[in-house]
Design a protein that fits this description.
285 residues, Fructose-1,6-Bisphosphatase, Chain A, domain 1, D-Maltodextrin-Binding Protein, domain 2, 7 helices, 34% helix, binds D-MYO-inositol-1-phosphate, binds calcium ion
Length: 285
């Protein structure tokens, strides 16, 4: 068994970047005219297009060619076990609703993680890439090596999260799930948080939101209801840019909650979220 310290995170990040870039080109270049919804998942608005599945199939094939011993976990159909210490956790299109509507805030997210990504608190990303094919932005990070963004053919520049520490003047990203009871809870929490911050942005891609914490376009971000593929790569990119990424109690980020910001603002935002959650009606199943 490979010891985590022996993992070559720089070459994993290169693989993540290359396969994510190829899949990002695919979803733009091969988008069929009149693209529609292929199927739905947790609700009528939780959609899958044929390009989500095709992009995931491409990622799985390329990762299998280059890293045959690793496990694979993706948002769409088709996961596999491995024999190495690495699992690839991929979201073939994060921001699928934006993709369907032609809003340029979607991306391919690819992360190499250690541990079991299905077990909260039992896994960590060690390398990752997030590519927005419309803006040409490519974010990437390797554990301990910093976070970077390149645009088009340009040089990669190192990222640093915003230094904002005052919650009242902080721009905060968030997102909403696909089922009504979750959204009701999210709206109730948001009603508490909104008066306490500069403003809220709901851009529609959690992976990009976390990268925007890394590049300072957002001061902070929180969301309930994410899956590992939504945040695996963005978690590392934000962390390597100096942000703290946890739940609202300082534990591992999970579907229950993810909070990302530099430590001072993170403490203020987490406190605000704990207060909000304490007064809202709990989510009903
Ligand atoms: C969604 C996006 C969105 C977030 C949702 C996710 P998808 O992923 O990341 O911003 O608010 O919670 O499910 O469905 O576009 O891959
Ligand atoms: Ca997603």
């Amino acid at each position: 068994m490979t010891h985590p310290e022996d993992i070559d995170v720089i070459s994993l990040a290169r693989v993540a970047r290359e396969v994510a870039t190829e899949a990002a080109a695919l979803i733009v270049d091969e988008r069929p005219p009149g693209l529609g919804v292929m199927t739905t998942k947790t609700s009528a608005v939780d959609i899958v297009t044929e390009m989500d599945q095709r992009a995931q199939d491409l990622l799985r094939r390329r990762l299998g060619e280059r890293r045959p011993d690793d496990a694979f976990l993706g948002e769409e159909e088709g996961s596999s076990d491995g024999t190495s210490a690495i699992t690839w956790v991929v979201d073939p299109i994060d921001g699928t609703v934006n993709y369907l509507y032609g809003i340029p805030a979607y991306c391919v997210s690819v992360a190499a993680v250690t541990g079991d990504p299905r077990e909260v608190g039992q896994w960590r990303p060690v390398a990752g890439a997030v590519v927005n094919p419309v803006t040409g932005e490519r974010f990437h990070a390797a554990r301990g090596q910093g976070a970077y963004r390149a645009v088009g053919a340009g040089e990669a520049t190192r990222l640093a999260a915003s230094g904002a520490s005052d919650l009242a003047t902080a721009l905060i990203g968030t997102g909403f799930g696909y089922v009504a009871p979750r959204r009701r809870w999210q709206a109730d929490v948001l009603a508490q948080v909104l008066p306490a911050v500069r403003d809220i942005r709901r851009m529609g891609s959690a992976a990009l939101d976390l990268c925007h914490v890394a590049d300072g376009a957002l001061d902070g971000y929180y969301e309930r209801g994410l899956n590992p593929w939504d945040f695996a790569a963005g978690w590392l990119v934000a962390t390597e840019a100096g942000a703290l990424v946890t739940d609202e109690h300082g534990g591992a980020p999970s579907g229950a909650m993810i909070v990302a910001a530099r430590p001072g603002l993170h403490a203020a935002l987490s406190g605000e979220l704990r207060s909000a959650i304490a007064v809202v009606t709990p989510e009903t199943p």
